[in-house]
Amino acid sequence: YDYYAQNYPESLLPDSLASLSFSVINNNTADLTPPTLRDITLSASGVEAPGSIEVIMDAPDDVSGVNSAYVSFKNSETQKELSTYLYKTYFDSESHEKVEYEDGKLHGELQFNQYTATGDFTIAFVSVADTADNYLQLYGKGHSSYDYYAQNYPESLLPDSLADLSIYVHNDGKGADVSTSTNSSEFVNQVANADNNAVIVADFSSNKTLSENAFEAIKGTNKTLSLVSEGIQWEFNGTDIVNESKDIDLNVKIDYISQSGGQEAEAIKELVEDTDTVVLRFPENGVLPGKAKIRVKADYSMRKYLGVEGLNVYYFDNTENKLVPIASGITITPDYYIEFEIEHCSYYIITEGTVKTETPNPPAEDDKNDTPQPPAEDDKNDTPQPPAEDDKNDPTPPSEENEADSEDDEEALPSSQPTDPPKSPKTGEETAYHWYLLGVAALFAAYGIKYKTRNRIRP
Questions:
Q1: What is the full DSSP assignment across 52-85?
Q2: What confidence category does residue 48 fall into, taking pLDDT thresholds of 50, 70 and 90?
């Protein structure tokens, strides 16, 4: 305050507010100190792009416990900065809850995509916060103001053992020719003015709408437009833009099946049953201007939940309530992404294995009343089975003209399987195919069809 009062008095609050304050009374143990940084380790000192490196931080806290941490690395030549949050917990597929990492440390992942340039990335900044919002902020040699902090605030520097921690990235690919953002006023012009074979990488974190003009700018060319953000990426090539250009919404919701809600999600749950599943809710864009490659970030939690290979992608057809296979046997890429292609937007799912693709259809209405066919010629001599127990007590009343013969008929019916198969009646064309054997009569009874006989049938 005194510094600003002497040098920048216009930046001070007015006197009536400059001393505004309040008091806090806490009868519990207060947490007044930030966490302590013990160490930062990397899963590797170098990476082949695209790829990923795990960052592990040991930073205990005395009272409330560490809540989260943040670390960034910077390439001094390209000024490209890569960063990640680190957490003590991950999503567990068994309990469907967040659980602590087994080593009790904070974990995060640095992603080096296919557009990352070759070079060294040096640690620039570290921030660790406890649950009481006490922050520890330390600077490394990758930060542009490292020398300033070294002269004026040496206590804010990372220890010497960590100050120059670095990662070497090697990329054989050509990387990005144009780096921009969908939020830039020059975005469409940058796409239009790029070479016909250019790779254009655009961040869409702050503007999730892709203009139809961007599709027109790549249509008919070999330009690749890669749209990136945290969690998901879209990639279009100009040769694939064959439909009408239009604005599309790039915002995709990603949920575990246990957390997903809505009518479509409930129908999907019935189809996948107990299979571990991730649900992707694409915006209602309908048919896309062209085929898109979709890349879904598989962080540690998702990899532990789904696995890293043998994954399958399905599209949910809500008109027929079934799943349509899109891609199978997928292996997660070296930079931990799940890749597949789509041509229209809807609900898509990623599963750890195969699932049933549709619900069983009930018989058509016309099939329900089909009369059973008489036995084939070869089947006429098959020994008939006795009627089911329930059918024995459900005889069809005899007609009046045959009422006198009913006793003889009852005597004629065998109490067990006959030793010789019955013969077809010699007269009565109407009944010729109905009474080849008594077992067929039982079958008719099962279908609820009752027949009255005019002629006596002898076994």
A1: EEEEEEE---SSS-EEEEEEEEE-TTT--EEEEE
A2: confident
Beta-sheet pairing, 178-181 with 199-203: parallel
Both structure tokens of 8: 């920048």
pTM (predicted TM-score): 0.60
For residue 388, pLDDT over 60 is answered with no
* Residue 355, phi then psi, degrees to nearest 5: -135, 165
**DSSP β-ladder status, 51-58 and 66-74:** unpaired
The pLDDT-based confidence of 56 (bands split at 50, 70, 90) is very high
Taking the C-alpha atoms of residue 229 and residue 227, their distance in angstroms, rounded to an integer, is 7
The tokens for 65 are 């416990």
Residue 124: both structure tokens together: 């620039």
Overall residue count recorded for the chain in this entry: 459
Stretch 389-408: mean pLDDT, rounded?
42
DSSP string, 398-457: PPGGGGGGHHHHHHHS-SS--SSPPPPPSS-GGGTTT-S-HHHHHHHHHTT-----SS--
At 166, phi and psi to the nearest 5? -140, 165
Question: DSSP 3-state assignment of 268?
Answer: helix
Please report, for residues 61, 190, 303, 339, the alpha-carbon distance to residue 57 in angstroms, rounded to integers and kept in the order given. Answer: 13, 40, 20, 30
| Cis ω before 50 (30° cut-off from 0) | yes
**Which residues, 6 or more positions from 108, have their beta carbon under 8 angstroms from its beta carbon?**
54, 55, 57, 69, 71, 84, 85, 86, 87
pLDDT band at 327 (very low <50, low <70, confident <90, very high): very high
**Residue 345's pLDDT band (cuts 50, 70, 90):** very high
pLDDT at 93: 66
> What pLDDT is attached to residue 174?
62
Q: What span, in angstroms and rounded, lies between the C-alpha atoms of 165 and 158?
A: 10
> CA distances (Å), 128 to each of 72, 98, 172, 299, in order?
12, 20, 35, 21
